[in-house]
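Record minuted for everyone:
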Amino acid sequence: MSTYKLPIRGKATNGASHDGALHIPEDALEAQHRYRENSKRDFRIYSRGPYDFAVSTSKQPSIALWVAHVRLWASVPPLTEAAKREQAELWTLQWIWDYYVAAAKKAGVAKEDVGQQLEAEYGVPWTYITDSIMGRTDGGIEAKKERFKEVLLDFLNDFKETEGGMGGVEVDEDGNVIWDEENELFGVTVVKIDKGDGHLEFTEV
């Protein structure tokens, strides 16, 4: 991974100055990585409007988002068409994409724009992701909620076994992660941020 320095895309403002274009950093994945490391948020969404957006989730999904990002880090960008389609089928990219879509919807950012961001970061066109939880058409919302819970708990238990260090996530007497009732189906908190380094926050959406 390069050491490209994130360009400042304009001074921190109160939202009065923007050009209506979608500005994504040249090294988009590294920029997202640094934003996560240097802020209290899970990720950043870029927009064409006067603000970008900082996004937070609850504790268990936040762990899954970070690990999904780190696991993809070593394999991006996929260099062939086959590799892109294979990556689109991974739970890691699907999980990130569902959260991007949820955040973009709440922030009023077009799905196509956040899809452009995802491709800039991970090298996979968003249209290749056809089997994400929210992309499924069968079973309705309750089926999506059940699949969300299943994927999250399976991941957390696998992570506990393979990488240890659950960061305070509670387990039951059998060592399985306890479902946190605070988790929503891709629930997000979205806050307006400046279009510079993103660390100046304004109001919640």
